[in-house]
Design goal:
Elements (H helix, E strand, L loop, with lengths): L7 H4 L2 H11 L2 E7 L11 E7 L3 H14 L3 E4 L5 E3 L4 E7 L7 E6 L2 E7 L4 H10 L2 E2 L11 H6 L3 E2 L2 E2 L4 E7 L5 E5 L4 E3 L2 E3 L5 E11 L2 H18 L19 H7 L6 E2 L2 E3 L7 E2 L6 H19 L8 E3 L3
Parallel strand pairs: 2-5, 3-5, 4-19
Antiparallel strand pairs: 1-2, 6-7, 7-15, 8-15, 9-10, 11-12, 11-15, 13-14, 16-17, 17-18
The chain binds flavin-adenine dinucleotide.
Length: 316
């Protein structure tokens, strides 16, 4: 967007607003504070948020925005996002009003679950437990959606979504749908490389039949451990930085003496040094300054340059 601030009128002339409303068919909201759509509770206004509920309306929306050269951004549950204070220009597409179908597909001895992008991971895990399917336990407590989880290759030391993904169905900006098999997907640590402006529509996960009680116990154990090691009381976006190979980012931050430091309203969590907590009134800029300060101090003390895990989006 070549740095120029396009006004809301530019994107949302009455013609564009009317055409978009007709195409989206679901809700369309103007000037929405992104702080209400993210777990960090920061972020300026998004020009427009749309909530298409069905695939044909989503395809229509994408084709329209591409044709009109209006930028768009896909929102999952907003739990890995830091939206800057200037907000998001163009259109935010939120799939949470639809795209919630989960189905069991049977094949040989293993079992496959089909899930649409807007399904919360917590619902997917519950579905797996209800059908005595194991393999998703590692994702217990991750507050994202299937779409956001895949883009982030969400997980931890016990596993990542890539380990159980059989295929992912993707919509490109021209409105074409393709399904890619695991071996053709470029997963890496906290990332899935997708063609620009593509949208994940759904995925198939390969799980294994197991004792339901044992699966439930494993999930409970992971949730208890999360409670012990992760702050739950204040808005945050989970781990801020990726772990450098073989080292914990939290440990490096701790070693640099930064646990609990503050800038503006934010602080680094005392329970987990890789979490930044928003006491409620922080600006995105406060958090960005803290991130920069942590990077500098950790680099000076340890020689590691920490790379953000969270996605930083929007305008200053
Ligand atoms: C308390 C807490 C604990 C957490 N613990 C973990 C953890 O243990 N492990 C871990 O990996 N993460 C963790 N996270 C981070 C976060 O929950 C995950 O990264 C999650 O997968 C993000 O999903 P989301 O739906 O919220 O995505 P969002 O934050 O909404 O989006 C993330 C990215 O995905 C893109 N995106 C979302 N949906 C789609 C789609 N359908 N198509 C294309 N692009 C899309 C967005 O544009 C954005 O770039 C934690 C977060 C919190 C707040």
């Amino acid at each position: 967007m070549n740095g120029e601030r396009k006004t809301l009128t530019y994107w949302m002339s009455r013609r564009v607003e009317e055409e978009l409303r007709n195409i989206v068919k679901g809700d369309l909201l103007i000037n929405q504070p992104m702080k209400e759509y993210t777990s960090f509770r920061v972020g300026g206004l998004a020009d427009v948020i749309v909530f298409p509920e069905y695939i044909e309306y989503l395809i229509g929306t994408i084709k329209y925005l591409s044709r009109e050269r209006i930028p768009y951004f896909i929102l999952g549950n907003g739990t890995n996002l830091l939206v800057r204070d200037g907000g998001i220009r163009g259109v935010v597409i939120d799939l949470s009003h639809g795209f919630k179908r989960v189905e069991l597909l049977k094949e040989d001895n293993s079992s496959l679950i089909f899930a649409e992008a807007g399904v919360p991971l917590v619902s997917l895990i519950k579905f797996a437990i209800d059908h005595s399917l194991s393999g998703l336990e590692f994702a217990a407590g991750i507050p994202g959606t299937v779409g956001g989880g895949l883009v982030m290759n969400a997980g931890g030391s016990l596993g990542e979504l890539k380990d159980i993904t059989q295929s992912v169905t993707i919509l490109n900006p021209r409105g074409e749908i393709t399904t890619k098999k695991q071996e053709d997907l470029r997963f890496s640590y906290r990332n899935l490389q997708l063609p620009r402006n593509s949208i994940i529509l759904s995925a198939v996960f390969r799980l294994k039949i197991d004792n339901q009680l044992h699966i439930r116990e494993r999930v409970q154990k992971i949730l208890v451990k999360r409670k012990e090691t992760q702050p739950m009381d204040l808005p945050n976006a989970g781990s801020i930085f990726k772990n450098p190979e073989g080292v914990s980012a939290g440990k490096l931050i701790d070693e640099a003496g930064l646990k609990g430091i503050r800038i503006g309203g934010d602080r680094v969590s005392e329970l987990n040094a890789n979490f930044i907590l928003n006491p409620g009134n922080a600006a995105a800029q406060d958090i960005l300054s803290l991130i920069e300060k942590i990077q500098q101090k950790v680099y000076q003390k340890t020689g590691f340059m920490l790379e953000p895990e969270i996605r930083i989006v929007g305008e200053n």
